[in-house]
DNA sequence: GAACCCTCATCTCG
DNA sequence: CCGAGATGAGGGTT
């Protein structure tokens, strides 16, 4: 693979290594910008193929015992996609007969079927509010009746009462129908709360060994505050949720309206036709509890629910054609789209799961299988064509990792030549360029002198790993008494400055307060973008708050002026904390918990002094991260000691959950206008290519 | 391993 | 008979 063109991969030497030479000019976001269309859902919901057969089919319950409804055995190896032996789709004439023109749109979200029952969630909201009140969270805003009795929400979409529709900034309409911004906001609030609750839990004495569920607590608070969106159930696309989006908790699916059941795998709604009501499936979660067949990328064999399979001390039984199973059956006949969420093991954190929204599917057939004498329903889901890859991307990555198929366009399997514990691949699948320009890989900062603090500084005295609740640990104290990371190493809050344990501290290297010093944890890839030169992305899913990498390079001494002489002027690889960075909010809102001082959770950086780093000649993966005006990564100053001297570092963390193969970006900020040389600062600005809806057009 | 939470279905009461 | 509220069942998750 590597013998080829361009450069030689020479064995790594531990000393100064100039061998990792990649000799092409760097390029970093310099092309003209074509702003993307606003973030509409990435695909249109087109009917999968051709016109459907019309007319009636005789009522076709597969509940009529297994007779002719073949088990897949006798058709297993035939082509899966076209015309199965399943029932003919019944057109949806029963609904909106007056104006349902074609079948196609009728059930895919264009026209909305009536929703029966569950007129709203307020009842539950109140119940929960009451429940919470007796618990410790008494501070939630009261859920009010935000809908007058008798006003159907469909009939009266406009906000009614003047102020009645706002709780924590989300209007009733927004709670019904979301948007990308809203979904992101809700998810970020959820996770910020969750992290904070974990932090509180971590800090408790071990004696209270009760396992708490911060995810449930967080969602509880959101739900009872009305901080959620897409509450209105719907078939098809959920506004603001995109194919490929990932989630780490079932509750996240709930609060954004992707899948309302907190546990159940099948979510459905009652749809009212002219004559009768029937349940139709809107979404399913396949998470491995049943033996679903998820080998194929576009096909999913899904098992019905119930029957006590896999549960201990419960008698297995036949599954019944009711609830979710019934809804799936009806959806098969109605051929409506069903959202599919695939859950799988999180490779980074094996005890938990990742859920990938894999877009819309249709149910193509169903049958009954027998397992240990009991009947199980099986449903064959087939993915609608034309949607962006989601689960399939995961499958590919899995193959790359197993070495079964190598990455297309792979130039180097590890451009760090072992300098990092996790390899970083170098890939170009868009053109012939063989790699970025020469630089030396180095995984941290090169300081020419120490970072002077007024007060002398020393590490802690812990002799094992520092404990979150330990007030004798000076490192914890320096962080305001709050451990900056959760037990699985996720950053809780942005802060003016984070104090980690350093080489001076006697605590073990596995101390949780050294997150930014432990090297890369996710498998990154430097890749050629189509219009921004080289960029950075990850093979692994990344949780919000995950440490990604630090900005490595040579610290520039301001006194000496511009290092590197003339070239300093157009050094594209400078990181400067003195730039102007737009403020943004990442932390939990203290009002949602019983916490007073919001000043304590300031997100403004406060540095002992400015830090300028150049990664032009020496650097790590960070130098490839491009700018975006709506980034998914932010930087955070981190301080730790070495030989009684403090050193400042810049650590990058994920703003939100980042699906695999999504480009990682952060906000480069802009040079202040007070820069020496007047308008030279302006000249240095570059056109932005981030394409986000709130793009500032220039950066740098 | 235990302690959870959301929705739907059904029941009760006015 | 209807709607509002209460209660129970169901389904896995972390």
TrEMBL record:
Query: What GO cellular-component annotations does this UniProt entry give?
Result: chromosome, centromeric region; nucleus
Residue span, YDG domain: 236-383
Q: Where is the SET domain?
A: 522-669
Pfam families associated with the record: Pre-SET, SAD_SRA, SET
Domain Pre-SET, which positions? 458-519
Compartment(s): Chromosome, Centromere; Nucleus
UniProt domain Post-SET: residue ranges: 684-700
Keywords on this record? Centromere, Chromatin regulator, Chromosome, Metal-binding, Methyltransferase, Nucleus, S-adenosyl-L-methionine, Transferase, Zinc
Bias regions of kind Polar residues — which residues? 7-16, 63-81
Q: Which domain of life is it from?
A: Eukaryota
Presence of keyword Zinc? yes
One GO term of the biological process aspect: methylation
Record's protein name: Histone-lysine N-methyltransferase
């Amino acid at each position: 693979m590597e013998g080829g063109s361009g450069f030689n991969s020479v064995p790594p030497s531990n000393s100064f290594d100039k061998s990792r030479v990649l000799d092409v000019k760097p390029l970093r976001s310099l092309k003209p910008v074509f702003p993307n269309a606003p973030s509409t859902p990435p695909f249109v919901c087109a009917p999968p193929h051709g016109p459907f057969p019309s007319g009636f089919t005789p009522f076709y319950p597969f509940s009529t015992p297994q007779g002719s409804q073949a088990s897949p055995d006798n058709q297993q190896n035939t082509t899966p996609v076209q015309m199965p032996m399943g029932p003919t789709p019944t057109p949806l004439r029963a609904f909106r007969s007056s104006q349902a023109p074609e079948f196609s749109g009728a059930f895919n979200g264009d026209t909305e079927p009536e929703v029966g029952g569950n007129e709203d969630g307020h009842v539950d909201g109140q119940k929960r509010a009451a429940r919470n009140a007796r618990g410790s969270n008494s501070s939630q805003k009261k859920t009010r009746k935000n809908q007058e009795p008798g006003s159907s929400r469909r009939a009266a979409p406009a906000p009614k009462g003047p102020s009645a529709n706002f709780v924590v900034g989300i209007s009733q309409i927004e709670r019904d129908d979301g948007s990308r911004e809203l979904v992101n906001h809700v998810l970020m609030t959820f996770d910020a709360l969750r992290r904070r609750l974990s932090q509180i839990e971590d800090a408790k004495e071990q004696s209270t060994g009760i396992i708490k569920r911060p995810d449930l607590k967080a969602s509880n608070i959101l739900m009872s505050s009305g901080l959620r969106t897409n509450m209105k159930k719907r078939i098809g696309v959920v506004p603001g949720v995109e194919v490929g989006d990932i989630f780490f908790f079932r509750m996240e699916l709930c609060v954004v309206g992707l899948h309302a059941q907190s546990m159940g795998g099948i979510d459905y709604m009652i749809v009212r036709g002219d004559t009768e009501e029937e349940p139709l499936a809107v979404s399913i979660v396949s998470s491995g509890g049943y033996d679903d067949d998820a080998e194929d990328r576009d096909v999913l064999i899904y098992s019905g629910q119930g029957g006590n399979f896999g549960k201990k001390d419960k008698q297995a039984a036949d599954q019944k054609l009711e609830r979710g199973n019934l809804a799936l059956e009806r959806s098969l006949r109605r051929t409506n789209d069903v959202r599919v969420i695939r859950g799988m093991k999180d490779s980074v954190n094996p005890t938990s799961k990742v859920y990938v929204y894999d877009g819309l599917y249709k149910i193509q057939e169903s049958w009954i299988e027998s397992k240990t004498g009991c009947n199980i329903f099986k449903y064959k889901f087939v993915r609608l064509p034309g949607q962006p890859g989601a689960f399939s991307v995961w499958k590919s990555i899995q193959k790359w990792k197993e070495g079964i198929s190598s990455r297309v366009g792979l130039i180097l399997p590890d451009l760090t030549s072992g300098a990092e514990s996790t390899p970083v691949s170098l890939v170009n699948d868009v053109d012939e360029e063989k790699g970025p320009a020469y630089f030396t890989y180095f995984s941290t900062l090169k300081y020419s002198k120490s970072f002077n603090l007024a007060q002398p500084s020393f590490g802690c005295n812990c002799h094992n790993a520092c404990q979150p609740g330990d007030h004798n640990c000076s490192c914890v104290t320096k962080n305001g008494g709050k451990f900056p990371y959760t037990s699985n190493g996720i950053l809780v809050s942005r802060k003016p400055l984070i104090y980690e344990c350093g080489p001076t501290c006697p605590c073990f290297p596995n101390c949780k307060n050294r997150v930014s010093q432990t090297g890369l944890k996710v498998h990154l890839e430097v890749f050629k973008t189509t219009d921004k030169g080289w960029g950075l992305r990850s093979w692994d899913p990344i949780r919000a708050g995950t440490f990604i990498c630090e900005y490595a390079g040579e610290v520039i001494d301001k006194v000496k002026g511009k290092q590197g002489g003339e070239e300093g002027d157009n050094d594209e690889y400078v990181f400067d904390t003195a730039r102007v960075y737009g403020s943004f909010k990442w932390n939990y809102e203290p009002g949602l918990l019983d916490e007073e001082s919001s000043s304590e959770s300031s997100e403004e950086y406060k540095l002992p002094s400015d830090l300028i780093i150049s990664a032009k000649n020496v650097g790590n993966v960070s130098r490839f991260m491009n700018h975006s005006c709506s980034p998914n990564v932010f930087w955070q100053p981190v301080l730790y000691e070495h030989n009684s001297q403090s050193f400042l570092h810049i650590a990058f963390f994920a703003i939100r959950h980042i699906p695999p193969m999504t480009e990682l970006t952060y906000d480069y900020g802009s040079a202040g206008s007070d820069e020496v040389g007047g308008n030279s600062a302006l000249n240095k600005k570059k056109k932005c290519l981030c394409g986000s809806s709130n793009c500032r057009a220039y950066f740098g």
